[in-house]
Amino acid sequence: MKNIVMGVDIGGSHITALLIDIDKKEEIQGSWSRENLDSNASADRIIDAWAATIEKSIRSYQLFPARINIAMPGPMDYQKGICKIKGQGKYEALYGLNIKNMLAIRLGLSSSDINFVNDAASFLKGELFKGSLNNVSQAIGLTLGTGLGTAHTENGCVKDTDLWKMPFLKGVAEDYISTRWFIKRFHEMTGIKVMDVKDLVDNHKGSPYFNAVFLEFSVNLAKFLYKFIRIKMPLAVVIGGNIANAEEFFLENTRRFLASKMGYSFPVEKSLLGEKATLLGAGASI
Fold first, then answer.
1. Domains of the chain
2. DSSP the chain
3. Which of these ranges, 93-97, 133-137, 214-218, 227-231, has the smallest mean pLDDT?
4. d(C-alpha 160, C-alpha 88), whole Å
5. Using CA atoms in the order 84, 89, 91, 95, what is the torsion angle rounded to 10 degrees?
6. pTM score, two decimals?
7. Is the pLDDT of residue 82 over 90?
8. Any stretches that span the bilayer, and where are they (predicted)?
9. What number is the average pLDDT over the span 69-85?
């Protein structure tokens, strides 16, 4: 069935797989499979974990998808399937490897059955496909998580903007807009080590340092968005990723700081679909 495809979302700490009916723009109920993973494990263990999650989703429907499209953060040679992630605290063991071929062998498939696509572009495509930006023609999208993903629309297509490495403050944008910034900054303020933003929210919400770190993040995000908007001139922004789940602590302040720089209120929306946006966007990719 050519209309049934698999969308896969690979992040710094998880993998999610979902079968999708592209004609209906709907997920296949019961095919959702999500697992946490150690992105600092060996290459073989990472590939095995990916394959196990994909196989679990396939077994749920008893029908093999026409293709498997995998949304993955960069840098990467997406066409060849060669991982180029290095120095980002994740997937170091995969650097320089053809993970497309490795995964195909592990699944018993031809490498032509598997496509790797950019995760931020997939996220924005999903939101345009069936999400909060359904009627917007010019937009930019951010995935806020272990790293920073950026994408934009151009001539009706969605493309990776690759602004994670844009010079920003005393480093690059991802140094200030990512989970690792929260971990580093909260430790600098308090001497306390948190695992991620969820840990920060669950165990430190309401403390003075909690409020301070989110306020600083709001300012940094607004400054970055201002630069991004000036480059691509979109009509709206959509934000997703794990950090977006903590929107109540930063999004209104981000909008306010951005409006003060723009001189008017600019639409900054949180994803309606969440992780499903990336899965739908990946599945819809050719």
1. 4-121 (3.30.420.40), 135-270 (3.30.420.40)
2. -TTEEEEEEE-SSEEEEEEEETTTTEE-TT--EEEE--TTS-HHHHHHHHHHHHHHHHHHHTS--S-EEEEE-SSEETTTTEE---SSSS-GGGTT-BHHHHHHHHHT--GGGEEEEEHHHHHHHHHHHHSTTTT-SSEEEEEESSSEEEEEEETTEEEE--GGGSEETTEEHHHHSSHHHHHHHHHHHHS---SSHHHHHHHHTTSHHHHHHHHHHHHHHHHHHHHHHHHH--SEEEEESGGGGGGGGTHHHHHHHHHHHHSS---EEE-SSTHHHHHHHHHH--
3. 133-137
4. 18
5. 30
6. 0.85
7. yes
8. none
9. 93
- For residue 134, the model assigns a pLDDT of 66
Maximum Cα–Cα distance for the chain, whole Å? Answer: 56
CA separation for the pair 51, 103 (Å, rounded): 7
User: Which of 166, 245, 227 lies closest to 237, judged by CA?
Assistant: 227
Q: Say yes or no to pLDDT of 133 above 80.
A: no
Average predicted confidence (pLDDT) for the chain: 92
